[in-house]
Q: What sequence folds into this?
């Protein structure tokens, strides 16, 4: 029985993970559920999955959960950052699903990596911020990091086994790989009139044509910042150079990414756009388990199409590719600025097209210093957030 900690249990990835656990109750157990402050959702999850621990980052939410849990349930309720780092490192924990959204996920994800756990990585922002430090921590502890993000999971599945075993330090050229082809749907605004983009509402941006996801990543998909963050994520996970990484727009989201070999072969991983597939793959790797996902019906899919990304329509993608080339200071600033600008857009404080403006402003105005420790990263993250907030206030 694999005991799992689910960071971000009340979110979209959390729900998909719990659904895969329900499909395989003999092999997996939700040992600890972790969320921010949504007590109603956490209470429902506790009653359904009966974890040993329920952790709410917000102390008031934890106190309310404690009051509302049925007295006969033996669930330990906790709160606090240090307590969370201790939970992921408990000896009985086999596997940690890292699915808190944004930079907030970094400390707990890194704690799981440092504790040498099997870490299923959905929280791409933590890798975008901490890059080298994350990979070094992983190598230092022998943690097994498996990519949940559907593109990275697809790439992983298309790699030869020695490269799969060398996550963070793959020798792509040595494995005969010429390119990683990162696919992305292009989101809901792929063919909208360019002039209409500034008028798009948060609900329109969150209406993804293929995937159902949390609101932050949905907006990132509409701006293709998500693909930019994934480009940076791929750079670290697969030790890829700029020349080895390409973005391909593929509106149907049937191919979840591809690996191109020097002999002309291209391997693709396909399936219905349902996160339970990559989650189940990571949970069971190298075995396979049921995920509850409908089999792909090629006759329903009909056609697959491919386009070059348009940087004029998607300036955030270009900012991310350039930041990746510049280095970890730039990617940390971009990630922080983007979290602030997306939140401001979701709160209807700025327009959709202002997201890229705020991000670009921060990249060119925040003083970038060298990042040797997690504290350095968090300090730069705060600086960039302040700059982004000031910029948002002026728009
Ligand atoms: P979501 O908004 O649906 O859920 C976010 C979860 O994080 C919630 O459980 C929330 O309680 C928790 N959380 C938020 N702030 C927190 C804080 N300060 N401390 C602790 N917990 C906090 O998000 P999601 O769509 O499930 O995405 C989660 C992560 O997975 C993101 O990093 C996203 O980029 C990544 N991801 C998601 C998908 C997807 O299909 N949803 C696909 C690939 C990658
Ligand atoms: Mg993805």
A:
């Amino acid at each position: 029985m694999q005991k799992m900690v689910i960071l971000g249990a009340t979110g979209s990835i959390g729900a998909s993970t719990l659904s895969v656990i329900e499909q395989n109750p003999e092999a997996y157990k939700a040992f600890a559920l972790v969320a921010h402050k949504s007590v109603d959702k956490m209470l429902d999850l506790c009653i359904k999955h009966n974890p040993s621990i329920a952790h709410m980052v917000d102390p008031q939410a934890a106190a309310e959960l404690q009051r509302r849990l049925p007295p006969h349930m033996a669930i330990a309720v906790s709160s606090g950052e240090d307590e969370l780092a201790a939970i992921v490192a408990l000896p009985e924990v086999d596997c940690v699903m890292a699915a808190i959204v944004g930079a907030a996920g970094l400390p707990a994800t890194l704690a799981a990596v440092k504790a040498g756990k099997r870490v299923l990585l959905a929280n791409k922002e933590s890798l975008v911020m901490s890059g080298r430090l994350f990979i070094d921590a992983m190598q230092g502890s022998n943690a097994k990091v498996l990519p949940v993000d559907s593109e990275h999971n697809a790439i992983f599945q298309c790699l030869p086994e020695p490269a799969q075993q060398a996550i963070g330090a793959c020798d792509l050229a040595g494995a005969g790989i010429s390119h990683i082809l990162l696919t992305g749907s292009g989101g809901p605004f792929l063919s909208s009139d360019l002039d209409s983009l500034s008028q798009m509402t948060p609900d329109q941006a969150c209406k993804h044509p293929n995937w159902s996801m949390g609101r932050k990543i949905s907006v990132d998909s509409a701006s293709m910042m998500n693909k930019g963050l994934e480009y940076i994520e791929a750079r670290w996970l697969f030790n890829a150079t700029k020349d080895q990484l390409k973005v391909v727009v593929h509106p149907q989201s049937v191919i979840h990414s591809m690996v191109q070999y020097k002999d002309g072969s291209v391997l693709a991983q396909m399936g219905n756009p349902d996160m339970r597939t990559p989650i189940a793959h990571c949970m069971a790797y190298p075995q396979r388990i049921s995920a509850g996902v409908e089999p792909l019906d090629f006759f329903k899919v009909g056609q697959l199409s491919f386009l070059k990304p348009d940087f004029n329509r998607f300036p955030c993608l270009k900012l991310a590719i350039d930041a990746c080339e510049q280095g970890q200071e730039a990617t940390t600033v971009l990630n922080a600025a983007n979290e602030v600008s997306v939140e401001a857009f979701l709160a209807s404080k700025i327009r959709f097209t202002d997201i890229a403006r705020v991000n670009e402003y921060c990249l060119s105005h925040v003083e970038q210093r060298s990042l040797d420790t997690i504290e350095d990263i968090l300090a730069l993250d705060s600086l960039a957030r302040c700059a982004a907030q000031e910029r948002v206030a002026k728009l």
Q: What stands out?
A: The chain has three domains: 2-147, 158-301, 327-394. Residues 8-14, 35-36, 38, 57, 99-101, 104, 122-125, 149, 211, 213-214, 216-217, 275 surround nicotinamide-adenine-dinucleotide (ligand 1) (CB under 6 Å). DSSP finds 17 helices and eleven strands in the chain.
